[in-house]
Amino acid sequence: MTDAQPEDNAPERTREQRLAELAEKLCRSYTYGIGLDETQQTDPQEAGAHWDAAEHLLPWIDEAPKREIREAFGRGYDKGRDRGRASQARHVDQAERVARSAARDASAALTAQLAAETALDATYRERAHLVALLAALHPSHIGRTDPNAPEWAVVTVETPAGQMTWHIAERDMDLFAHVQPTNRICRGWDGHTTEEKYQRMRDLTEVTPCLLGQDDLIERQAEHIKRLTSRVAELEKQAAGD
């Protein structure tokens, strides 16, 4: 009884697979290491030539001795190397052109972005000036009270038309030195939306000429400030006692 031979489970390569391998080898030999897929993208005609060569060579390779195969590839090495260097030079030149174009596009995009940011900063600064004026005319306070935007301060302005709030950038905080910091007795955000805020502002704009001419408005604001000051003093006294 003889020992059983191990069974070869490796699948036999199809002609198409062998043809693809040969075309890949020819391409890399003649393009100095550049693969067939990349050659197809940059020079489809040259890639097709490698496929045609593989079609003609495959039947001969099936019959030729290994030595003749090695000699055939050896004879083509120098030519393939020269063509590969030329192809590589074309790729380098193309890559440099693409890099220069990308650098120009990036520079233009950065310039446009900086210009847009500068214009936006100027707009926010102008808005901050107007909000600071409104905060000087009505009881207001400012602090980092928005947990969803901790990097922004929020100025809260209490007007006869209702509460109004704005987010203030750090670079604009110098405009709000006259506004008291938010403390425990200050009224928090009343839940108004942006549209409601601007409606209140429109309402305030309509009645302000009448209100500014009335002494009782000044008295009410003075009384409100007095109550706030008194309440702060009480809280500080309680805190000192604790």
Textual characterization of the structure:
With 242 residues, this protein is of the alpha+beta class. The chain has six helices and four strands, in the order ααααββββαα. 12% of the residues are buried.
List the helices and strands and how they pair.
Blueprint: H1 15-30, H2 36-42, H3 44-63, H4 66-137, E1 140-143, E2 153-159, E3 162-168, E4 180-181, H5 194-211, H6 215-241
Helix pairs in contact: 1-3, 2-3
In short:
By secondary structure, this protein is α+β, with helices and mostly antiparallel strands. Helices cover 66% and strands 8% of the residues.
Shape: rod-shaped
**Portion in beta strands:** 5-15%
Order of helices and strands: HHHHEEEEHH
Biggest sheet statistics: 4 strands, mixed
Keywords:
242 residues, alpha+beta, four-stranded mixed beta sheet, 8% strand, disordered N terminus
